[in-house]
Design goal:
Layout: H1 3-9, H2 22-33, E1 37-38, E2 44-46, H3 48-53, H4 56-59, E3 63-66, E4 72-75, H5 80-88, E5 97-106, E6 115-124, H6 129-146, E7 153-158, H7 159-167, H8 173-181, H9 186-198, H10 208-214, H11 219-232, E8 237-238, E9 241-242, H12 243-257, H13 264-274, E10 277-278, H14 280-294, H15 299-314, E11 323-325, E12 338-343, E13 353-357, H16 361-364, E14 373-379, H17 380-383, H18 385-388
Parallel strand pairs: 1-5, 7-11
Antiparallel strand pairs: 2-4, 3-4, 5-6, 6-14, 7-12, 8-9, 10-11, 12-13, 13-14
Helix pairs in contact: 6-15, 10-12, 11-12, 14-15
């Protein structure tokens, strides 16, 4: 069989002839030997966590369905949230636990199947966060090597650095949340900076008067008023969001529309920050110089960044070959720290392995305590190309 025929047969992790791809099973078996317990999360999942936490790119490609009760469900578009939910319900929540998986995820894809096989790891509760980050990248690199790709491109980033920079800005908390949320959407981020430099919103929507009246009012009273108005209008939910959540978003718009001003020189600092890229050690030096020049407190985030570089080097990874960029993002709203993508420089650039740190996700899924978390997914269908063509 030629390479194209083998690639078609390996779709979704199934080898030609309908048998499971032994390399995918072997990959997950290696994770189990490394101490990661294999999980089999349900394919049908509550839609709300994905609608709220995944990011716009995932939300618009989900397969949604509605139960007779009105509750929305979806075919899982990724496995991080399902594995996280299973961990929280396992009785092990808060303890250091690692899990691995192999199974399909479902996303609308034009002109091809919406079912894609993924393998991966999710690691919860480890206090040695930078060492855990380095382990994820090392295991991700082992995955592509196992499939025959020996010289991949590796892009890394760190959302925590951007969050630390935003935390140092003298703007309203709602604007800080907005900037961090829009880090994944660069055109939105540019619009945010324009609005801040100009001083609030230039837009005059029909409800601007309502927003102006609510800005600065008692938060609880304003929330109750908006919730009541939505209920009177017969609105119960929109796109998986409850009335309370819709009210929260509306009130945030009131805060964002209020007077806010970012000095132009501070915008220049942000743009200089987002332009830093290159080898990790050189980038760290450039970030420390910028922080000192602009009097930004990036010390804690930079210390963790440099600690991670050390752990990567200790694992035998050529740090000088990694490509770091402060502006690098992955389109998922739940990432909060280290990010990486492993790609083949000779092909499309679609990630073969991708992941990162998402420390806030477990709390947003219902945990009563903060739980560190990091993981990655392996695109089995894309990796199936390697070795099958030889």
């Amino acid at each position: 069989m030629n390479a194209d025929g083998q690639i078609a047969g390996l779709k979704n992790g199934i080898a030609a002839g309908g048998k499971p791809d032994p390399r995918a099973e072997g990959l997950v078996a290696s994770y189990e030997r490394a101490g990661y317990r294999r999980l089999f999360p349900a394919m049908l999942q509550p839609a709300e966590p994905f609608l709220d936490l995944s990011g716009e790119d995932i939300r618009r490609r989900m397969f949604l369905t509605t139960a007779p009760s009105g509750e929305e469900f979806c075919l899982r578009p990724d496995l991080t949230i399902p594995v996280s939910l299973d961990y929280l319900q396992s009785g092990q929540a808060g303890r250091a636990q690692g899990y691995c998986y192999l199974g399909p995820v479902f996303r609308h894809r034009a002109g091809t199947s919406g079912e894609v096989m993924q393998a991966g790891i999710e690691s919860f509760g480890r206090s040695d966060t930078t060492a855990a980050d380095a382990e994820m990248l090392a295991l991700g690199l082992e995955a592509v090597t196992q499939y025959g790709l020996t010289k991949p491109d590796v892009q890394i980033g760190d959302v925590a650095l951007f969050s630390a920079m935003v935390a140092a800005l003298d703007v309203a908390p709602a604007w800080k949340r907005r900037l961090i949320k829009d880090f994944n959407r660069k055109s939105n981020l540019a619009q945010d900076l324009n609005r801040l430099v100009l001083g609030g919103s230039n837009e005059r929507p029909e409800y601007q008067g309502v927003l102006a009246a609510l800005a600065g009012s008692d938060p609880k009273g304003a929330h109750a008023l908006v919730t009541d108005l939505l209920s009177i209008a017969g609105i119960s939910a929109v796109g998986g969001r409850s009335v309370g959540e819709i009210a929260d978003r509306f009130l945030e718009q009131a805060t964002l529309g209020a007077s806010a001003k970012l000095p132009r020189e501070m915008r220049a600092v942000i743009e200089k920050f987002l332009a830093i890229a290159g080898e990790p050690d050189e980038a760290a030096a450039a970030l420390r110089a910028l922080a000192a020049e602009a009097k930004l407190d990036l010390g804690g985030a930079l210390d963790l960044f440099e600690s991670r570089i050390g752990f990567l080097a200790a694992r035998g990874i050529d740090v000088g070959a990694l490509r770091f960029a402060t502006a690098f993002s992955r389109g998922f709203d739940y990432y909060s720290g280290f990010l990486f993508e492993i790609t083949d420089p000779s092909r499309t650039g679609d990630p073969l392995v991708a992941g990162g740190r998402y420390d806030a996700l477990l709390s947003r899924l219902g945990s009563t305590q903060p739980i560190p978390a990091v993981g990655f997914s392996v695109w089995v269908e894309r990796l199936a190309i390697y070795g099958s063509a030889s």
